[in-house]
Amino acid sequence: MNKKILIIDDDTDLCMLLSRYLSKKGFEIEMAHAGNKGIARYIEQKFDAVICDYRLGDMDGKELIAKLKDHNPAIKLLVITGYSDIKTAVEVIKLGAYDYITKPLIPDEVYSILSTLLQLPAEYNGIDRKTKPVAIPGKEAMATVTDSEFFEGQSPSAKALYAQVKIVADTNYSIILYGESGTGKEVIARTIHNTSNRRDKPFIAMDCGTLSKELSGSELFGHVKGAFTGALQDKVGHFELANEGTLFLDEVGNLSLEVQATLLRVIQERKFRRVGGNKEMEVDVRLVVASNENLQEAYRKGKFREDLYHRFNEFSINLPPLRNRKEDILPLTEFFLAKATTEINKDIRGIEDSVLQTFLQYNWPGNLREFRNVIRRAVLLTPPGNKINADTMPWEINNGNTFPVPGREDRVAVSPVLSEMTNGHGEEKDILKESASRAEYETIISVLQQVNFNKKKAAELLKIDRKTLYNKIKNFRSLQ
Hints:
By secondary structure, the chain is of the alpha/beta class. It folds into 3 domains: 4-112, 3-Layer(aba) Sandwich (Rossmann fold); 156-319, Rossmann fold, CATH 3.40.50.300; 414-480, Homeodomain-like (Arc Repressor Mutant, subunit A, Orthogonal Bundle). The chain has helices at residues 12-24, 35-44, 61-71, 86-95, 107-119, 156-169, 185-194, 213-221, 238-241, 257-269, 295-300, 306-312, 329-344, 353-361, 367-381, 395-398, 431-450, 455-462, 466-479, and strands spanning 4-8, 28-32, 49-53, 77-81, 99-102, 175-178, 203-207, 246-250, 271-272, 281-282, 286-291, 315-318, 350-351, 387-388. Strand 3 (49-53), helix 3 (61-71) and strand 4 (77-81) form a beta-alpha-beta unit. Helix 17 (431-450) packs across helix 18 and helix 18 (455-462) packs across helix 19 (466-479). The radius of gyration is 24 Å and the shape is globular.
């Protein structure tokens, strides 16, 4: 299903142009040309994100953002305005907007930021929510959702992680966070910021993995009007927004070598220039960066600057994958369940024991992000007043203990789909056909694991349509 976006702007021409551009990118667009109409439209329908003007005829940005967040604290919000000044930029971010872009808009820039915003889980987007503990029936409550988005597990690896966070938080050290996708690197970065002496200053996050080489410099350092084609207004960069606070650079290894060189100079001199500008600006920013790959290996291969690596590597933290935190599975279940039931205001009685056992046995290749999504999906599918059962689980969860995670040593046992050479009645089977089926099964499972069970992506990689993929999965299940 296409992502649904609401544009609220009294400039009808801008609305139409932006709508046409984003529609071509696959988004479903709705428009409103006044603040009150936009709020009414948002309440009537469900939108994945909102793009709104800061100054409207019937209300200003503060009032609009406040009313939208009153209706949905987890709203994903991007603000556009013709008033390009740092005070406004910081203000809208503190109010809960994800980012700020000045008019006239650069469509590619809007698309890049919007794509990043839509990938963020709801709890990373400034939710301010208090709830009571949600206990699994028959067990003492172990988790509480508070204003903090930081969940402290009790597993040995989790305790070691939190100990390192507490040690380094109140310093000004630059930090590298290593961890698989979905392990919560941005949550840890925010926690470091919130427990540091910069807690009252901005925390700005930037996903370097979604930016082109051309846009990286502009996003990091801003640009001046006329710096390049389409730069029709001055733009404030992430360094400027994060001044005196913390800047989190996710997937930093994806930055081009040219941008890395500029970044190194900024870190060394604590000064920067906007792209196309001559004025040097002083900046005081603490850097926390994250990477899926080892940056030391990256610089040895010539993909990352060694001197920049050493600037970042004043302290490094490895985030454990969820499969190494089995003791935290049940408390995390309560934590995510509390959030999900509050998010959609649904009364769920708990989770069946068989599902909890499945959670404990599953390998969680998508880590915390996958776990959160599974719980949210289950809450959505479970009728009010009922327990979550296996019918609400994705196929990969119910069959998660039957296949390995490619490239990992801690593999779960494989339950062969067609491993026996007889059918249980002593009759021999077609060995060649069986071997081919087994190879096909293992290939499909391997690809599904690599794309975190995104069946659309898996079908594309396998060069088959989704219907064929679903049918093959169904056939495998019937053979087990």
